[in-house]
User: Which sequence fits this backbone?
């Protein structure tokens, strides 16, 4: 601006007219942070609370009635049933009816899985997320291959779907509130995502886009998820019996 004024003053025979064009009217500054820092930059009263699905809230209020059905079709209340000749059934019945999943002492397989170098807890991860050694990975892969072969013999075709979904997607929100499971949640770019606890809804979403006729039915989709996730309560986690990250067909 100073140079323009000096040019104007030094030119006696040139008429100068000024107009406010070309000047910067405004500018903005953006600071890009690390993605992990960016995901934690929003705070609210609700952010510290863990959201619980409608299904989980409803499950805690449900009152259950337990019966034993005998081979002749008769129903008998579990408290009145004679378990004297059915000891294994009694163990199962008490386990299911008590709904107690916490563990007082580690089951025998915990020491075995460590001793045989099959699997172990991973201190650097969340509870219920295991590391599998070569022996464990070999056993696991053989089971996975066996299941896959059986499904293929049955006529199933294998697919692969995402491990995370938008919890506010119309289909997901409905499913989310009907299935009593605790999810891992992730906030990303304004979306509230959750890690899948099963693969079936991914297959339903995929199949909904297919062009199928009666000639294609029954159409059998199959996926072996590695991994599915459920944030089971910490007191219920023990060895390989109850996990937060697991393989599931």
Assistant:
């Amino acid at each position: 601006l100073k140079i323009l004024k000096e040019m104007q003053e030094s030119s006696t025979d040139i008429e100068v007219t000024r107009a406010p064009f070309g000047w910067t009217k405004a500018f903005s500054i953006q600071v890009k942070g690390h993605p992990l820092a960016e995901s934690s930059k929003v705070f609210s009263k609700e952010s510290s609370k863990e959201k619980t699905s409608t299904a989980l809230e409803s499950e805690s209020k449900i009152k259950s009635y337990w019966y034993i059905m005998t081979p002749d079709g008769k129903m008998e209340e579990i408290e009145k049933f004679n378990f004297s000749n059915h000891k294994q059934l009694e163990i199962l019945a008490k386990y299911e009816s008590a709904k107690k999943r916490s563990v007082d002492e580690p089951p025998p397989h915990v020491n075995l899985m460590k001793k045989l170098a099959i699997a172990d807890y991973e201190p650097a991860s969340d509870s219920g997320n295991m590391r599998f050694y070569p022996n464990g990975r070999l056993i696991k892969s053989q089971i996975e291959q066996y299941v896959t072969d059986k499904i293929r013999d049955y006529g199933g075709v294998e697919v692969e779907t995402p491990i995370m979904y938008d919890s506010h997607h119309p289909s997901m929100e409905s499913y989310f509130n009907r299935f009593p499971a605790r999810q891992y949640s992730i906030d990303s770019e304004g979306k509230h995502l959750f890690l899948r606890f099963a693969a079936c809804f991914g297959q339903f979403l995929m199949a909904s886009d297919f062009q199928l006729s009666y000639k294609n039915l029954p159409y059998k989709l199959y996926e072996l998820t590695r991994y599915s996730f459920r944030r089971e309560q910490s007191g219920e986690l023990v060895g390989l019996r109850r996990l937060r990250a697991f393989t599931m067909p």
